[in-house]
Amino acid sequence: MQQDRVKIINRLGMHARPAAMFVSHASKFKSEIFIEKEGLKVNGKSIMGVMMLAAEKGSELIIYADGDDEQEAIRDLIELIRNGFGDLKDL
Amino acid sequence: MERKKTTILKGTGAAPGIAHGEARVIYSWQQSIEERAIDSARVPDEIARLDLAIEATVIELQKFRKSAGQKIGGPVAKIFDSQLMIASDVEFLKTVKNEIETSLKSAEYIYSMMVEKALMPLRLSRDEYMRQMVFDIEAVSNRVLRYLTGQTNDDIPAASRDCIFVARNFTPAEVLDLYERKARAIIIAGGSINSHMVLVARSLILPTVIGVSQAHLKIRSGDRLIVDGDSGDIKVNPTDTDWIAIREKAGRLRDLPLSRLRKLPMFPLTTADGVPVSVAANINLPGPLDQIISKHNIGVGLYRTEFMYLQHGGYPPEENQFAVYKTVADQYYPQKVVIRTFDLGSDKFVTGGDYEAENNPALGWRGIRATLEKPRYFREQIRAILRASVRKNVKILLPMITDLPELRRALSQIRRARAELESKNIPFDKNIDIGAMIEVPSAAIAADTMADRVDFFSIGSNDLTQYTLAADRDNQKLIRVFNSLHLSVLRLLKSTVDAAERHHIPVTVCGEMSGDVLSIPLLLGMGIRGLSMNPSRLHNAARIIPKLDSAAARDLAGEILGMKTLREIENRLFEFNLTLE
Q1: Tens-digit pLDDT profile for residues B301-340
Q2: Of B100, B133, B149, which residue constitutes the final position of a domain?
Q3: Is the pLDDT of residue B1 over 60?
Q4: Which pLDDT value is given to residue B445?
Q5: Please, are residues B272 and B547 in contact by the beta-carbon 8 Å criterion?
Q6: For chain A, what is the domain count?
Q7: Are residues B458 and B376 both part of a single domain?
Q8: What are the Cα distances from residue B295, in Å, to B257, B268, B331, B564?
Q9: Domain that holds residue A59
Q10: Does residue B2 fall inside a structural domain?
Q11: Which of B153, B195, B237, B411 is the most buried (most CB within 10 A)?
């Protein structure tokens, strides 16, 4: 199992579109993926679950990946969040 | 049988056309699920039923997505992707199945309960995209429940065709479904004019009225309805005389928008004395109209790009934009397509998201002033438009320009975007025309300061009228105040046209008045040679322009501009129209 911490930097937090992006990325991996926020843990491949987290800007998440491709999964997902889900164009 | 009382309901016309038919009212599912206990031996069966219902839902959604792709086009079809993602949420289903096993209740009860639990925090969100997600989740769960319960009472009955459907709200998928069942019109109690659902209805040319308070409670299934998708009026249980009359006009009225388009002559149009007038269409999003319009050699005078922002839930990536612009440019080639950069504001599309609720949205953070604060996004859109201009039939239009400094900032960003493409040897039309929308009074008053910086002006007469008369065009109480023929609006138009003429640049009017039979002679008489209008008005231009003599129009304009009251102006225009038609 791999895990890593990451902060949400998007001004609007993890709203509908980033949540869908996360689930889309996570679903590509064989590993089990979980997201934890303030003790609440949800399945990273479940759009309903990820939306319920309602992670706002500044909230710290722990991403867990467990499986054959766990290292690649963690790298991909952490980078996705660190890049603001491709939204990092606000100057 | 006692005749039911006739009532009139009012809403907002969202998609044009007049329809008549029997009402079918659709109620929400939440009311019909009972809490049914089950035997532990039945658990595997319940789980199997749930799986079947999900599978059927996914297949149905995939069919819609494909159908939407064919009928409306790729970009709009993407609306169904989020519903597919929700329906295919395997992990959520696992939790539902576990709960069925633990609590020993029926699949439909547990499923609807857990969906509602998941929705509760989302319903409170101010984020518009979150609320759209709520609709999508409800849409998916309604479908699943329909399969689970096999109920047809409050369902959209499979046999129901040729009806007018009424509900609290409909999702884009449901609109497509209803269209395939030959629905004649759609009425909803809620809804927003800029929602996905309205975009889909418009692109399918399905008459729609939204915002009819408690429509699903005031109308009963079986009621006869006459629906006007332009005015937003609904007549419930009309008199027998009215009903027979509308039935006779039926086919004509429903197909009127489409058949009028098909019967258009080939463009361009010229006046009776041979002066060419460029007449083009205002387009909101790709749809079945594009084919019909381009076949008549009609171009696009205003291509609104906001639908992409709405669909994407934010500024869309360059590649997505390029794909759409290229498709449009190719579709209309060799006619010109004028693409307007994002004109978004808190009233137009979203509250929450990038465009937070404002006290005065019309005077707020919107149009070019908003996009110039996000220059990277602005240049991204410009690059996408430039790349689509390779066949030299694309123009760029900048919305809501306030003054010269703002225009210069925009042009400077455009120069940067051009340099970005040139450095990568990506081809585009190096001579592409760039125009400014004249809709803010400050721009109209000082049009002469900008006429030498742009290749054309496009007058947004709706917003210009709104700002000049300080009257919200959507405010029912101000219907008599808001009028584009007001002398102050006409004076601003004239000064814009004069400035343009002094600098030899063309002027197009792209608001509602450009398609109005009374206003067209006046506009042409003022020296305007370009009109862009809602496709449903093109037939007006085709009818009036060939009958018009440009010298007579010029005299008319001279007269009108000397008048002091709206009543004089309207009377004279009405009189003039009688001599033409």
Answers
A1: 999 898 787 666 678 889 989 999 999 999 999 999 999 9
A2: B149
A3: no
A4: 97
A5: yes
A6: 1
A7: yes
A8: 16, 12, 10, 43
A9: 2-86
A10: no
A11: B195
B274 plus B403 within the same structural domain? yes
Q: Tell me which DSSP letter residue B508 carries.
A: E
Residue B547 lies in a domain: yes
pLDDT tens column, B190-205: 876 656 678 778 777 7
pLDDT for the residue B153: 42
Q: What is the DSSP string of A35-80?
A: EEETTEEEETT-HHHHHHH---TT-EEEEEEESTTHHHHHHHHHHH
Helix B461-469 / helix B487-502 crossing angle, nearest 10 deg: 130
Interface of B with A (CB under 8 A): 82, 85-86, 89-92, 118, 121-122, 125, 127, 129-130, 132-133, 137, 312-315, 317, 352-354, 374-377, 380
Find the chain A residues whose C-beta atoms sit closer than 8 A to any C-beta of B.
12, 15-17, 20, 23-24, 43, 45-49, 51-52, 54, 86-87, 89-91
Residue B514 structure tokens: 């450009």
Q: Which two tokens stand for residue B413?
A: 């960003």
Q: How far is B88 from chain A (nearest CA, A)?
A: 9
B484 in any annotated domain? yes
Mean pLDDT in residue range B13-37 = 78
Whether residues B460 and B537 share a domain: the answer is yes
Predicted pLDDT at A89: 45
User: How many structural domains is chain B composed of?
Assistant: 3
Structure tokens at B97: 């199945």
Pair A46, B89: CB distance under 8 Å: yes
Name which of B85, B99, B134, B137 to mutate to probe chain A: the one with the most chain A Cβ atoms within 10 A of its Cβ. Answer: B85
- Given the structure tokens 């499923």, which residue do they identify? B111
B484/B562 same-domain check: yes
Strand order in the sheet with A2-7: A2-7, A60-66, A32-37, A40-43
B215 and B100 inside one domain: no
What is the C-alpha separation between B396 and B303, in angstroms, rounded?
Answer: 10
User: Where is average pLDDT lowest: A76-80, B70-74, B339-343, B352-356?
Assistant: B352-356
Give me the residue from A16, A46, A91 closest to B92, CB to CB: A46
User: In CATH, what number is assigned to the domain containing residue B428?
Assistant: 3.20.20.60
User: A91, B85: Cβ pair inside 8 Å?
Assistant: no
> Nearest CA of chain A to the CA of B342: how many Å?
16
Catalytic residues of B: 196, 510
Nearest to B161 by CA among B177, B183, B141, B140: B183
Three-state helix/strand/coil letters over B154-175:
CCCCCCCCCCEEEECCCCHHHH
Return mean pLDDT, chain B.
Answer: 86
Report the C-alpha gap between B440 and B454 in whole angstroms.
16
| Residue B558 exposed, middle or buried by CB count within 10 Å (0-12, 13-18, 19+) | exposed
In a domain, residue A91? The reply is: no
pLDDT, average across residues B143-148:
86
B96 with B213, same domain: the answer is no
**Whether B386 contacts B421, CB under 8 Å:** yes
